[in-house]
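Thread title: Can someone regenerate the structure for this chain?

I was given the following input by a collaborator and told the matching C-alpha cells would be attached. They weren't. Posting the sequence so someone can regenerate them.
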Amino acid sequence: MRDVRTTPPAATDGILASRPRDLARSPARPGTHPIEAGTGRGLLHVPRDYDVSRPAALIVTLHGAGGTAGHGLGPLLGRAEDGGVLLLAPTSARATWDAIGGA
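Best answer:
Regenerated them for you:
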C-alpha cells in the first residue's frame, strides 16, 4: 500500500486521504443527516443499530445525472438498515458527475 504522505500530489488523484474524527466524542444519531464538507454537500445515513465502538461498512453511492443525494440513497436504505451499513451520498456540484462532458 502506498503512503499518500510521501507520494507526489499528481499520483494521489482518486485516493481518499481523509481521516475521520473520533466518533466516540460525537456519536452519530440514527437516521439520514445532511452534511457539508468544504464546498461539497450530501447525505449520511446512519442505521438504527450502529455502534460507534465497532467498525462498520460504508457505501458511497452516486446519484444519476440531474439527481440529488437523496436519489442515490433511496434504493439502498432498507438493505443498509438490515445490514448495519453506513451510506454516504454526495451531491454532484454540476448536473452530472461526468468530468469530460459535464456541464
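DSSP finds two helices and four strands in the chain.
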